[in-house]
Specification:
Blueprint: E1 5-6, E2 8-11, H1 13-17, H2 27-39, E3 44-49, H3 62-69, E4 76-81, H4 84-93, E5 97-103, H5 106-113, H6 117-133, E6 137-143, E7 147-148, E8 152-153, H7 156-168, E9 173-178, H8 185-195, E10 204-208, H9 215-224, E11 229-232, H10 252-261, E12 264-265, H11 270-284, H12 293-303
Parallel strand pairs: 1-12, 2-11, 3-4, 4-5, 5-6, 6-9, 9-10, 10-11
Antiparallel strand pairs: 7-8
Helix pairs in contact: 2-3, 2-11, 3-4, 8-9, 9-10
The protein binds coenzyme A (COA) and zinc ion.
Length: 313
């Protein structure tokens, strides 16, 4: 039997998950959520974003979040930045990894970061070069990679061209984001196959939202096409405030369950992950969880009473 391959998950709930929440979450609660995610086995976490506090008040404490989380060892923390000012704030706060966000369409860049597509490309390239010069690891999101809420379906050639440019500017990793959760598995297969012609597949991460229930199916299509890096959010919390219709992210518990049962290792303990979901639920005051969470809670009740019981899938 061949050894199980590992998939790498970047947990985005502290940023993509919380940025859209109406109730302000305290820095202490964000740090507690991160600690629970680390306990569950997550080793790459997008902790916050250095964006305008006027645009996203929930992320106004970005520097404090970095300060409150960076003591965790062997965990890569990243912070999303929209521009060079964001990079400056992130490095001043001690961030070691940043994620730039470039949307594939003109309108989405305007709505999200107030720039034309051309400006957004230039700013993203400048930020990637500057970040690399400072020794930071970088992730480059290509947002609305499949469909834009304003302009409709996106030509895969456009998404691929932007990914290539971000790679050329020095991005360590390209994050193909289905921001509004509009992709279907066949489209994922096609995009990954085509993109892999010019962007090394090990440098591509897929970021899915589960708006129409296809998140895990899309992740499976990506796995089959050779992708081993994924973004997901505990409890499925998430969504972009500037992209109408963007519902929750693919839930980390659903991704882990799908991957582990399909023969891949994730390094995540699902019972411990459930503790993070329960905590987020308590803080946000509403029920959370991916499709698998009810089943997971039943399993925990049935066998979790064993002290220190852990479950991978
Ligand atoms: N962090 C904090 N403040 C920032 C900033 C940053 N990264 N970039 C700009 N600003 C400040 C400016 O200093 C200025 O402040 P002032 O009003 O006190 O003078 C104000 O924001 C406006 O800056 P301006 O350059 O005119 O840009 P804008 O108003 O068009 O906003 C962004 C541009 C990019 C700052 C804003 O649209 C943004 O933060 N978007 C992020 C959206 C997001 O997080 N989306 C979800 C994740 S994909
Ligand atoms: Zn997202």
């Amino acid at each position: 039997m061949s050894p199980r391959e590992t998939i790498h998950i970047t947990e985005v709930s502290p940023r993509d998950g919380l940025q859209n929440q109406p109730a302000l979450v305290s820095t202490a609660d964000k740090a507690r959520l991160v600690a629970l995610l680390v306990e569950a086995g997550l080793r790459s976490i997008e902790a916050t974003s250095f964006v305008s506090p006027k645009a996203v008040p929930q992320m106004a404490d970005a520097a404090d979040v970095i300060a409150a989380t960076r003591h965790h060892e062997h965990v890569r923390f990243s912070a999303l930045i929209p521009n060079l000012k964001g990079l400056e704030r992130a490095t001043a706060a001690g961030a070691r990894e940043v994620a730039i966000v470039l949307a594939a369409t003109e309108t989405m860049n305007q709505r999200n970061i107030g720039m034309s597509l051309g400006q957004a490309i230039e700013v993203s390239e400048a930020a990637l070069v500057a970040a690399r010069d400072q020794g930071l690891r970088t992730r480059a999101y290509v947002a609305v990679a499949f469909e834009c809420p304003f302009e409709g379906p996106v030509d895969p050639a456009d998404t691929i061209r932007l990914a290539e440019r971000m790679l050329a500017a020095g991005a360590s990793e390209i994050v193909v984001a289905d921001t509004i959760g509009a992709a279907a598995p066949g489209q994922v297969t096609e995009l990954v196959r085509r993109m892999a012609g010019t962007v090394p597949v090990e440098r591509i991460a897929m970021h899915f939202h589960d708006t129409r229930g296809l998140g895990a199916a899309n992740a499976y299509a990506a796995l089959e096409a050779g992708i081993r890096r994924f973004d997901s959010s505990a409890g499925g919390i998430g969504g972009c405030p500037f992209a109408p219709g963007a519902a929750g992210n693919l839930a980390t518990e659903d991704l882990v369950l799908m991957a582990e049962k399909s023969g891949y290792d994730t390094g995540i303990d699902l019972f411990r992950l459930l503790a993070a979901v329960d905590f987020a639920q308590e803080v946000l005051g509403r029920p959370l969880g991916g499709h698998s969470v009810t089943w997971l809670r039943q399993r925990l009740k049935a066998e979790g009473s064993r002290s220190g019981a852990g479950m991978s899938a």
